[in-house]
Amino acid sequence: MPAMSSFLIGWVSRHVLPHERALRTWLRTAFPAIDVDDVIQESYCRLAGLSSVEHIDDPRRYFFRVARNIVLEQVRRERVVRIEAASGLAVLEQGGEDEECSPERIVAGRLALERVERLIDALPERSRKIVRMRKIEGLPQREIASRLGLSENVVENEVARGLRRVLDQLTEGERAEMPTRRRAMLARRTRQGDRP
Amino acid sequence: MSDAPANPIDAIACQWAARLDRGLAGEEEAALDAWLALDPRHRGALLRAQAGMALLDRCRALHDDDAPEQAPQDEAPDDHARWGATRRQALALAGVGVAGGLIGAAGLALWPQGSGIRTRIGEMRRVPLADGSMAVVNSGSELNVSFTPRRRDVDLAQGEAWFQVAKAPDRPFTVTAGRVRVQAVGTAFNVRRAGLGVDVVVTEGTVKVWSEGGEAQLVKAGQRARLDDGVGLAVSPIAADAAQQELAWREGQIVLDDVTLAQAAQRFNAYHEDRLEVDPALADKRVVGSFQTNDMDGFAQACAAMVGGRVERGNGVIRILR
């Protein structure tokens, strides 16, 4: 099977992933009893099958539409899907078209990246250190392993675990941004003179 | 958040993204291909994980230029949706007894003693009774209330009502529904008549139920007693969420849990002068959903979407057609 196109990966990273959280919220509200994880997974699966994304003007809307269609197909297949009919169909038609000005709209922007970095900083100590060395300082895995006296395998596992945590929090909220980390972050920001 | 993978596919996909990030060894490529071939969803999960990895890479850009940093925006934790779900579950768990407490009695005068209560089709009424009890009367029902210092008698002539009975040990509260009697001291229960059948669901405490000439049985919260035409009274357990669903009418809702479209239409028609008709070809299709009793149109549309039909209207009839 051919490797995933790096163009598609970049496009999803800039234009789709930052909206996953909003999509999850919308799905949960519009269809309280569907398996949101299942629909999200299926949505990415469809995106993975795209041979080009040039025809997609509004990726956020496209992403919402894909998910909505998956829900509808499940309904038609008579799988057990509960619809809040009172608002269900109306919402169905508007899916993903509101929140024009939500912060997530500014997807490739600095704010989105700063949020990701805050999530990295909120990782458990070893994971945070390794992810920072690997992703922000750009050190090779082997070098990180030798510097920290760890096996390459451990380094790789920490990167994977860190990635999963950041993804979870990026798409589900900020539950695990620990207060201590927050304080450290604020201190750092203050040092940089961003905020009083 | 615990380290237990909420979704094992995502955890494995992140592992592969980390390996792809440092470069795959020869034999790993075959292993990745095998994993991707195992389930079409794996490819989607890998795309998501690699996109996440790309996002991490782009953080480096924050440190690569000297542009003045904008103050990071404080985003409120987006917890309301999850909270909503939790609250719903909590309500379901707390059982139907809770719902009684939610029913507002604002603006309602006490119902005079010894009088009748009648609801039109589509009407649902919350009626505080003179003794402090509450009756919630469903669409198309008729009730006659007769209170004396010694007894509290309610005759359910037709339809359905839920009662939350004020405690008064020396003044029994008895509901008559055809041949069935339900007696409570301080408790909550629902009585529904359909044809000659009577269905009692107890949501709080214990009631005594008997049918004329028969022996009394104690029916507890979480149980139902049913009298079908010509058959004796049968007591059976009812799950809390099933009871919750059956009593959703008190909040103006119909909850359908995997019933046929024909049965669903029948439930809906109890609330409307307009008729909902279902193409016989679709009558046996099963539907699931929770609906506002007053939104027949939305119900018809949702059902049509579920079973792959269409909706036609005219002359007080809404038809779901193939």
Residue-averaged pLDDT of chain A: 74
What is the strand content of chain A? under 5%
Helix content of chain A: 55-70%
Overall, the morphology of chain A is elongated
Q: What can be said about the biggest beta sheet of chain B?
A: 7 strands, mixed
For the secondary structure, the number of strands of chain A is 1
Reported for the largest beta sheet of chain A, the result is: none
Write down the Rg of chain B. Answer: 28 Å
| Total discrete domains of chain A | 2
CATH topology of the largest domain in chain B: Jelly Rolls
What sequence of helices (H) and strands (E) makes up the elements of chain A?
Answer: HHHHEHHHHHH
Shape of chain B: elongated
Q: Which CATH class of the largest domain in chain B is shown?
A: Mainly Beta
User: Please, how many domains of chain B?
Assistant: 3
Oligomer description: heterodimer
What are the segments of chain B in which pLDDT stays under 50 over at least 5 consecutive residues? 1-5, 66-113
Protein name (chain B): FecR family protein
Organism (chain B): Novosphingobium pokkalii
InterPro entries (chain B): FecR, Ferrdict_sens_TM
Pfam families (chain B): FecR
Structure write-up:
The complex is a heterodimer of chains A (196) and B (322). By secondary structure, chain A is mostly helical. Chain A folds into two domains: 6-102; 110-192, Orthogonal Bundle (Arc Repressor Mutant, subunit A), CATH 1.10.10. Chain A has helices at residues 6-15, 20-30, 36-48, 59-76, 85-94, 110-121, 125-136, 141-148, 152-172, 179-192; one strand spanning 83-84. In chain A, helix 7 (125-136) packs across helix 9. The model of chain A is unreliable at 79-108 and 174-196 (pLDDT under 50). Chain B folds into three domains: 8-60; 102-245, Jelly Rolls (Sandwich), CATH 2.60.120.1440; 252-321, Phage tail protein beta-alpha-beta fold (3-Layer(bab) Sandwich). Chain B has 322 residues and is of the alpha+beta class. Chain B has helices at residues 8-22, 26-38, 40-58, 61-64, 80-94, 96-102, 240-246, 261-269, 296-307; strands spanning 115-118, 125-128, 134-137, 142-147, 152-158, 160-164, 173-177, 180-184, 188-194, 197-204, 206-211, 217-220, 223-227, 233-237, 253-260, 275-278, 286-292, 310-314, 317-321. Chain B is built from nine helices and 19 strands. Chain B is elongated, with a radius of gyration of 28 Å. Chain B has a seven-stranded mixed β-sheet, with no helix packed on it. A seven-stranded antiparallel β-sheet of chain B has the order 2-3-6-9-10-13-14. In chain B, strands 16-19-18 form a three-stranded mixed β-sheet. The model of chain B is unreliable at 1-5 and 66-113 (pLDDT under 50). In chain B, helix 1 (8-22) packs across helix 3 (40-58). Chains A and B meet through helix 1, helix 2, helix 3, helix 4 and strand 1 of A and helix 1, helix 2, helix 3, helix 4 and helix 5 of B.
